[in-house]
Amino acid sequence: MIESLHFKKVAIIGVGLIGGSLALVLRRKGLASEITGIGRGLPNLEAAKRLGVIDSFTRDIADGVKDADLVVVAVPVLKIADTIRQAAPNLKPGCIVTDVGSVKASVIEAVGPVMPAGAHFVPGHPIAGTENSGVEASFPELFIERKCILTPTAKTDPAALKAVKGIWEEAGSTVVEMDASVHDMILAAVSHLPHMIAYTLVNTVGDIEDSGVDALGYSAGGFKDFTRIASSSPEMWSDICAMNKEQILKTIDAFRRRLESLRELIEKEDLSALKTEFDRAKNLRDSLIKANPKETA
User: Fold this and answer.
1) How big is the CA angle at 82 (ends 79 and 95), to the nearest 5 degrees?
2) Residues in CB range of 266: below 8 A, 6 or more apart
3) In this structure, is the dihedral angle defined by the CA atoms of residues 280, 282, 285 and 288, taken in order, positive or negative?
4) How far is 109 from 151, CA to CA, in rounded Å?
5) Edge-to-edge order in the sheet of strand 70-73
6) pLDDT tens across 117-174, in order?
7) Structural domain of residue 214, as residue ranges?
8) Do 161 and 248 sit in the same domain of this protein?
9) Which domain-ending residue is among 153, 178, 203?
10) Global model pTM greater than 0.85
């Protein structure tokens, strides 16, 4: 543990899978004396307290962040800036605010004007998750052997950055720093596009079901594995589409060109070219698994 990496009070805004799991890490590692949960849903907050994830809770953002040394904003990306705006009047000098959103450039742009002087914002994104949501899905091992990307700017306080980096390292993550625009381009390709494809595939099969054919009844493990992420939060992913619109559109266009090319090869019955395409994809996929054998999500 980094020397002095301890917070008297931590406020977690959004005690779901990510926020709840991080709270469990902070508790397990002894990094926080008190953890307050803040959110909209009373049942979820009550469950978080019952499960020992948090010590207390409130649905009032400004009240919940009073005297907090660390504020973790784990809400849908479209709501991050407004959430910090509501918290701003009670953010004490020296308080560190960090987020876990999977879009960074637009979040940084929106948060800048609402951060009060003396408080420090460190943009972050743990590359971890499951298709489940809510505090009951949280577990402290979620971040082990995963990457966490931090996207500091020229205005980011070095001590605050070091502290947030230390938290994620204590959670078991490999911390990487990069420019926010590079982060958004990468995540559009490896996370946002796959979710768009999964949602679209499920809805395509749903259209077949609507025509009176029982297609889903014949789906096996492959379909369920491929579309697992379509069970992710619709609210969260619609927000991500709004916040990373340009990069997601670029990746959709690139995917559409690839799919159209594949369609042409199938139409021409060019089996040799199809095999070449499939071989390339298989090799890329196999190299990914070989490099990250423990990653399954």
Assistant:
1) 110
2) 274
3) negative
4) 12
5) 56-58, 32-38, 7-13, 70-73, 96-99, 120-122
6) 999 999 999 999 777 788 999 999 999 999 999 999 999 999 999 999 999 999 999 9
7) 182-291
8) no
9) 178
10) yes
